[in-house]
Amino acid sequence: MIQDAATHEQCIGMALLKDGWEDEYEQAPPIHPIGCVGRIISSHKLSDGRYNIVLQGLYRCSYEEQTVMTNYRQARITPHIPETSPSLTSDVRRHLEQTAQDYLTSKKANELCDIIGSANLTDPILVHNLSAGLDLSPLEKQFLLESDDLTQQARRLIDLIRFKLADLQTQG
């Protein structure tokens, strides 16, 4: 797949396998219908034939039709490309920044708190980087990916971070 992508447009789709995939891995187990497309920024072939890759996320997509005619899946997709530049209301952004800073402070990640407080981050960069970078489970990240728009994703992210903060408080 990586070699094929390298000879074409350097893009691949990423999808989360649904629960129970372990027993069906070789038979192409079901995937979540919403995933994303990313461009391969770098790849390094390992001695066992696998690759370490770095992807730049481009857009969300829906997987419509899948085939397994090669040793990897191929699919017809519908891209989810917003028509306008998404933005948050000032209240949602402020709430997200504060909640994320509270969580990162509790995790002693003060440098990240400074970055989040920076006015230089656009709303999509803030929301997507927190969604990708925080210690969330794959299903929690899928929940964020399936948001209808940036505001819904930010609100879901706030809720997930608040749950994490509550867990930290009960542990401490």
Descriptive overview:
This protein is 42% helix and 23% strand. By secondary structure, the protein is of the alpha+beta class. It has a four-stranded antiparallel beta sheet. A hairpin with a 6-residue loop joins strand 3 (51-67) and strand 4 (74-80). The N and C termini lie far apart (46 Å).
In whole angstroms, how far apart are the ends? 46 Å
Low-confidence stretches: none
**Largest sheet at a glance?**
4 strands, antiparallel
Q: What percentage of amino acids are in beta strands?
A: 15-25%
Question: Helix fraction?
Answer: 40-55%
Note the overall shape.
globular
What spatial order of strands do you see in the largest sheet?
A: 1-2-3-4
Structural class label:
alpha+beta
> Taking Cα atoms only, what radius of gyration do you get, to the nearest Å?
18 Å
> What is the helix/strand order?
HEEEEHHHHH
Q: What does the average pLDDT come to?
A: 85
Number of helices: 6
Give me the count of strands: 4
